[in-house]
Specification:
The structure is a homodimer of 552-residue chains. The C terminus of chain A is likely disordered. Helix content of chain A is 38%, strand content 16%. Chain A folds into 3 domains: 162 residues, 3-Layer(aba) Sandwich (Rossmann fold), CATH 3.40.50.970; 131 residues, 3-Layer(aba) Sandwich (Rossmann fold); 196 residues, Rossmann fold, CATH 3.40.50. Chain A contains 22 helices and 18 strands. At the A-B interface, helix 2, helix 4, helix 5, helix 7 and helix 16 of A face helix 2, helix 4, helix 5, helix 7 and helix 16 of B.
Chain lengths: 552, 552
């Protein structure tokens, strides 16, 4: 006898959702039981809902298709919220299935009762509590169609237990058509073409799917045809880069440096990106990073396909025949000696395998990553789109589930790792080819500099203790082994290179802990420009100097 | 020069809030900096916001005063939500301070922007975004007064960064008076006295602060004077028990058994508790556990002081002179041989030190705890009030911070532990006297039985894999050491007793891992009555049989 849970699972499958990142409880038991009659559905167990939601995000970044999450009432959704926030800001599709008390049980306000819909709206464009078993299939089809639409969105379907266990007679509803992208706006394309033809000081700010190969190639052709600058948003959902792909400069995290990158631009053209703003506000500093007098134009908004828009613009400019400049193959030398944030990034550049996926939550320790991997074999980089830390390890899980034939590198800072450290267990359970480089600088390094940047001074002993991760030191080799991941500590750059190569060639997850000095502990603000100029491979003389220093 | 953050911290201190469980980010840096000029404020760093909120809950349970939490924007609040849900259901006071973007920055919808107020309302009775620096002190005083009122509540004060860094001239606002409890309703007291005098089949359901010594003593006098039954709510916020205190039977988690406990009762009198309902709904089973024909009376509602109400009733019944029956001192024998859920609880009963605090999130492994500790030296038990797992270790932190002179025992199940495993680091950082007994039965044991109870069958291989915590096994000794907590595994009941005694006598945290077979894996539903009858020390012949079986 089929029940609501069977109908739900079958409709997910029919609609193209074949993976569910799960953390179920009693109210989800019928969904769990239904999985055994659905061989097409892969169910991945996580030990914490934030891992499930982050994994669904990583999966969607790599496939452009939603995975489902299976969450336990309001508290389960709460635990998933931070990484759903990151996914929302990433503009990726996810379908959350949140179990709820039976509709007949809700009025009694039992222990786990809470207002799920309101919390769901914080991160979801579409929220519905399925009210009857014979509606579950239609509701599910709609949830998936909305998620897969343009823009991609997060849908949350709340499933009361009695709706799940009730019997259904009919087969699952057919999948709904996925809304298509809005076509390019010809007048806007023509207007932007005219601006470009006038050879003003113009830059493109690329975001979303414009940062994948087709978009990058079209944008590079356009940029070359008229001397425009290409910029990428500060935290891309997914950017393809490396040898053989156009190089695009990423906007810097620190507003001071982003302003330098944007200085002098008269026309800024947005392609799947939003107008640049400071990540945080600082006393006396502007939030809006668009330079005074600069005109902002939107070539591709959230409902457009950025590649369609770029292609139409390239045709308009007769730029489609241009052979764009591509990054040459070039690896940094294998680093030697002391482990530092810089030599760790250099090691990654030296040994990164072909077609890798990098989940980058290295924070201050990843400053040199873009420079060091610019000429590495082509790879994808997934970044912290919403600023809610604890995203790197779960996203690596999702990417590895989505792309079982590609090596995944999680370059992961210590403080952020601890938010969703349970991820390691799922990597082991699913035997995922994820190499975690756990960069342990024993502090919330970024906060040492933010403390100064917000004008709060250098901090007294109590303040400093809240930014410090010593007493006791975290030992990630123990943590990895505790969750079944082969783990080792490396003490030199040479050892790191060897450990990386071993990890990339052996199946299953590996954790490599690299203990380094904090990047910004005690750093004077005036020394920042050196460190930060490298952050996004700024093409300034400074960046060259940094490269020279690190070359063999 | 004083700023908004200074005013906030000073007002918290003046209002009686002297502890903040923190997980700050950039938007909270002025609060962090202000701590160094506030020696009266203790700041405890946690590595995840769910630890901070659970610790604030544990602190409030033991002190009846709020601690503050310091959380980073919407995602930080999201991470804290599950344990704030438990705290809300526990009816304890907490003051959340949530940093937000500067008011001038909010319109730009930067990466970390989200709707904080809406999420806060899910768990808070009082939510305010402080709009101006010169209002911060008044807002803070109000937040604390609401939290400390009757009923105790959760307040959430959202603090935009510019409100925090703006300058203030005036001193902090004076604390506001704390709302007092509503006086007992004399007519209701008289009516209940009449019912009791008629010697019907009457039971009291005690909850909240009625389960502390003064309430228990008054309730025991009343019960003895007229032959009423005393019951405690299924998941007490804090219950005082052990030798020298009245024994109260806790309602069972499983509705089937709670119904047995309530059968035949004609009048149910609520004292700080709500009318009993099933934890979850099950097909064909009632949610409302009040027996047919039973009258429900509220002696003390959420706004009353339950002890005042009980005392007035005792006086009415001329019961104040009665010497109530108290639990005699009696420990079970030290267990020998194999570790099981039962021998673990027996070991706790055998060696529990005087005046201990037990944070009980042992789930199915804690079934025998009430029976085994009924005659142990007096102690407090803190339980999972809201059903959102991951509460036990954080609550143990809060209890240990609140009561530095008392030994804290966290009896903790494996699956639940992993939700907030980061707690171990804070125990080490703060050198808290917490002994964690990590009961590792390598499964979400309760879900194996819930799968059957909701009528979803025994589960196929995919379903069972989602309830199973092997492949790989979790190794909590490694996890504990990874976070700086001295950790060991015990293999026999004798070793457990010795390890417990050592841990209780040595300062700082200790983790003892006990690997046992899953309680309910493969268990037939019909075998449940035996296991469950013991859950809440039911005074049935079965419970006696269980005790006999476990006696030396």
């Amino acid at each position: 006898m089929l029940n609501g849970a069977h109908a739900l699972v079958q409709t997910l499958i029919d609609s193209g959702v074949d993976t569910v990142f799960s953390n179920p409880g009693t109210s989800e038991m019928h969904f769990v039981a239904a999985l055994d009659s659905a061989p097409q559905m892969r169910a991945v167990l996580t030990l914490f809902e934030g891992v499930a939601s982050g994994a669904a995000d990583g999966y969607a970044r790599m496939t452009d298709r939603p995975a489902a999450t299976l969450l336990h009432l309001g508290p389960g959704l709460g635990n998933a919220l931070a990484n759903l926030h990151n996914a929302r800001k990433a503009g990726v599709p996810i379908v959350n299935i949140v179990g709820d008390h039976a509709t007949t049980h809700a009025p009694y306000d039992a222990q786990l009762q809470s207002d799920i819909e309101t919390v769901a709206r914080n991160v979801s464009s579409w929220v519905r509590t399925s009210q009857a078993t014979d509606k579950v299939s239609d509701d599910t089809a709609e949830a998936v169609a909305v998620a897969r639409g343009m823009p991609r969105q997060i849908s949350t379907l709340i499933l009361p237990a009695d709706v799940s266990w009730g019997h259904v007679g009919a087969a699952a509803a057919p999948p709904l058509p996925v809304p298509v992208a809005q076509p390019p706006e010809h007048a806007t394309v023509a207007q932007i073409a005219a601006i470009l033809s006038a050879h003003t000081n113009t830059a493109f700010l690329l975001g979303g799917r414009a940062l994948l190969e087709p978009g990058l190639l079209a944008a590079a052709q356009i940029a070359q045809s008229c001397g425009a600058k290409l910029l990428a948003e500060v935290f891309p959902t997914r950017i393809q880069r490396g040898a053989g792909l156009p190089e695009v400069e990423r906007l810097a995290y620190f507003a001071e440096f982003a302003s330098t990158q944007l200085a002098g631009i008269d026309n800024l053209i947005l392609v799947g990106a939003r107008a640049p703003v400071s990540f945080f506000a600082y006393p006396g500093k502007k939030s809006d990073l668009v330079p005074e007098g600069c005109q902002v134009h939107t070539l591709a908004g959230p409902s457009h396909d950025p590649v369609q828009c770029l292609s139409e613009l390239a045709e308009h400019l007769a730029a489609t025949g241009i052979v764009p400049n591509l990054a040459p193959a070039h690896r940094p030398a294998r680093p030697r000696g002391k482990l530092t944030a810089d030599t760790i990034c250099q090691a990654v550049g030296a040994v990164l395998p072909n077609n890798a996926i990098i989940s980058d939550e290295a924070q201050t320790s990843g400053v040199m990553l873009p420079a060091m991997t610019a000429g590495a074999p082509r790879h994808d980089v997934l970044t912290l789109t919403g600023g809610a830390i604890g995203q790197g390890l779960p996203v690596a899980i999702g990417a590895a589930v989505a792309c079982p034939d590609r090596p995944v590198l999680a370059l992961q800072a210590d403080g952020s790792a601890m938010y969703t450290i349970q991820s390691l267990w799922t990597m082991a359970r699913e035997k995922l080819d994820v190499t975690v480089v756990l960069v342990n600088n024993q502090s919330y390094s970024i906060l040492n500099v933010e403390l100064q940047r917000v004008g709060a001074g250098a901090g007294g002993p109590k303040a400093k203790a809240l930014l410090d991760l010593t007493h006791p030191n975290l030992d990630f080799v123990h943590l990895g082994r505790g969750m079944g991941v082969p783990s080792k500590r490396v003490d030199t750059a040479e050892e790191l290179c060897t450990a990386l190569e071993e990890a990339f060639t052996r199946p299953g997850p590996h954790l490599i802990e690299a203990v380094i000095p904090p990047a910004f502990s005690g750093l004077k603000l005036k020394a920042l420009p050196y460190a930060m100029s490298a952050l996004n491979k700024m093409p300034a003389p400074l960046a060259k100097a940094v490269k020279r220093r690190l070359a063999p």
